[in-house]
Automatic annotation (TrEMBL):
This is Glucokinase regulatory protein isoform X2. The keyword Repeat does not apply. It comes from Xenopus tropicalis (Western clawed frog). Signal peptide: none annotated. InterPro entries: GKRP_SIS_2, Glucokinase_regulatory_CS, MURQ/GCKR, SIS_dom, SIS_dom_sf. Keywords: Carbohydrate metabolism. Residues 65-260, 289-474 form the SIS domain.
């Protein structure tokens, strides 16, 4: 992703063939493809894992044509950023950053965010609201009531979320009020095209309508090609990072232009290069990141990982923690994020949500009160801060944690010339210390520094959590195989992974997936006739649905037998690997026999 040459309004994949494999993979959007770099992710040790994820993240910076639009801050209007899951959490983070920037200029806040499932989704994975275009549109109408000039930025990395489709559709029906912008990481021709239940269009149809508005500058699509995810489909990783880089760069430049500072292509490049440098600075710590990953994998065997962050780095920690549930079937207690000041500091719309349940208290005080008493040697605690934060407070908290566990590590961000106090170094011997160069960009320097630190932290946490779960056997090749089927996209993803691992037809894979969801070998007509939403409803309460379906298909055995094999295996990966090696088993697609089915 590079801002070079002239401005353009659509960024299509320059060379889509690059990531395509023969057979079934060809039909998949880039965001769901399996990345050739990480094919052996599941067999890698911590150092190799970090290297592979680093190389995958570097694809964000591959050469590409210009990809930024002419944008002007809507005078007296509103900028709404909206997304689901990580994309929604990023919408919150970005809205806060740019309201802060406006505040610094003595101007009123103008940004707001929407996240599917409401504010509870900030700290707790809520995947099903993603499927509802009607609610998406209603939420947008609500925040825009009385506004005459709204820039709407809908983020869906996979160009797939019905919630966002509903909002874009609303905007396009009221172009006098809204300027719709879609952000994602697939070409429009690869946007999700299965019908949205109870609605008139598919996501792709909505995206095509939006594309038709480019010429008249009444709507825009920003869809950089960043290559497939390191863990196929895990759009929280590269998709999330690319969204952050793209929107921060674009909005920074827009604000610059808005303050009558001449904006040249050089400004864009300068900003984009700071992110590229952030990649180098971050992964220069690869050895220590690998050690943290190894420690985390060990802790997750019987214990937990607690991520305690200061300032916006706390929200970045929460983002990484929450996604472990939907991606790796982790329990919400396994990886948890906490932030200084709790809800006050993340400035969410609905305020303090602590009373919603034990999952929701997120301040450091909550950690000390509710969690610390039960922390033991099996648990790991990770502190994330900058040297501008309250170092005394950090040291105190670290000392409290050390009374419970010696597994305490930290990520610290310093500006050149700043040094960690010796006392803190003594309290926390395992430090991933990042030193950032001083930026001589007068206007946006402070913000760029903040953005770099957030992104660097995101990269480390994505790498550490995904790598740790890979080491725990939750990934097969580079497919997530043990995720919760909690929305229609995840249902289709499960069927698609099943096809790729087993090489069986789409029809057969869907049949076995349903057998696994319902725990029945013979599917009744009533079950077969259910909608995908119905299947998702049934799957949501089941665990290991996809691994059981994979083992059942590979071994040609009943789902009950497959379930007991999966349950008695050392790991999900081991269950799949041993089923692949069953004598007499037919070869699968990935092994060269090709595949019959096409999922969408
Ligand atoms: O459905 C779950 C999920 O995949 C999250 O992991 C992700 O952050 C979210 O959906 C949003 O995905 P997208 O940005 O592609 O719409």
């Amino acid at each position: 992703m590079r801002g070079t040459r002239k401005y353009q309004h659509v960024i299509e994949t320059p060379d889509p063939g690059k990531w395509e494999l023969a057979g079934y993979e060809e039909s998949l959007p880039i965001s769901e493809k399996s990345n050739p770099i990480t094919r052996e992710l599941d067999k890698s040790d911590p150092s190799q894992l970090v290297q592979l994820l680093r190389d995958c993240d570097a694809e964000i910076f591959q050469e590409e044509d210009a990809n930024l639009i002419h944008y002007h801050d809507p005078e007296g209007g509103l900028v709404v950023l909206s997304g689901c899951g990580t994309s929604g959490r990023l919408a919150l983070l970005l809205a806060n950053s740019f309201n802060l920037l406006l505040k610094g200029q003595h101007r009123a806040p103008r940004y707001c965010y929407i996240m599917s499932g409401g504010d509870r989704s900030i700290v707790s994975a809520q995947e099903s609201p993603e499927d509802d275009p009607h609610v998406g549109a209603q939420e947008l109408e609500k925040v825009c009531e009385g506004k005459k000039n709204v820039v709407f930025v809908g983020i869906s990395c996979g160009l797939s979320a019905p919630f966002i489709a509903g909002q874009l559709d609303l905007c396009m029906r009221h172009l006098d009020v809204y300027l719709p912008v879609l952000v994602g990481c697939n070409p429009v021709s690869m946007a999700r095209n299965d019908p949205i239940e109870g609605w008139h269009s598919s996501f792709r149809q909505v995206a095509e309508r939006l594309q038709a508005l480019h010429e008249s500058h009444k709507g825009f699509i920003l869809n950089p090609a960043v290559g497939p995810e390191a863990v196929s489909g895990s759009s929280r990783m590269k998709g999330g990072s690319a969204t952050k880089i793209l929107l921060e760069t674009l909005l920074l430049v827009a604000h610059k232009a808005d303050s009558n500072v001449p904006v040249t292509e050089k400004c864009l490049l300068e900003i984009l290069r700071t992110y590229e440098r952030a990649h180098k600075v971050t992964y220069s710590q690869s050895k220590k990141i690998a050690a943290l990953m190894k420690q985390t994998a060990t802790s997750l065997q019987k214990g937990h990982l607690y991520i305690l962050g200061w300032g916006t780095l706390g929200l970045v920690g929460i983002m990484a923690a929450v996604e472990c549930g939907p991606t790796f079937q982790a329990d919400w207690r396994d990886v948890r994020g906490f932030v200084t000041g709790g809800y006050d500091s993340i400035e969410n719309k609905e305020g303090d949500l602590s009373s919603l349940g034990p999952e929701f208290p997120i301040s450091h005080e909550d950690f000390v009160r509710n969690v610390l008493p039960s922390v033991s040697e099996t648990d790991a605690v990770l502190l994330i801060f900058t040297l501008d934060d309250e170092l005394n407070q950090i040291e105190k908290l670290a000392a409290l944690v050390k009374e419970k566990t010696s597994n305490i590590q930290c990520i610290s961000h310093a500006t050149a010339g700043q040094y960690l106090p010796n006392s803190l170094k003594k309290t926390i011997p395992s430090i991933i210390g990042m030193t950032w160069p001083i930026l001589f960009l007068e206007y946006e320097g402070t913000f760029i520094q903040k953005f770099q630190r957030e992104l660097s932290t995101k990269w480390i946490l994505d790498t550490v959590t995904s790598g740790a779960y890979a080491l725990r056997g939750k990934i097969f090749r580079n497919f997530m195989v043990d995720f919760k089927i909690t929305n229609s996209k995840l249902f289709h993803r499960a069927a698609s992974v099943l096809q790729r691992v087993t090489g069986q037809s789409q029809q057969r894979c869907t049949e076995v997936l349903l057998q696994s969801i319902y725990g029945e070998q013979t599917l009744s007509e009533q079950i077969r006739n259910r909608t995908i939403a119905g299947h998702v409803g049934a799957a949501a309460s089941q665990d290991k649905v996809l691994p059981v379906a994979i083992v059942s298909l590979l071994r040609n055995c009943a789902v009950q037998e497959a379930r007991s094999r999966v349950d008695s295996s050392a790991s999900i990966r081991a269950a799949i690997e041993s089923s692949l090696n069953v004598p007499g088993r037919k070869r699968g697609a990935e092994e060269g026999s090709g595949s019959e089915g096409r999922s969408r």
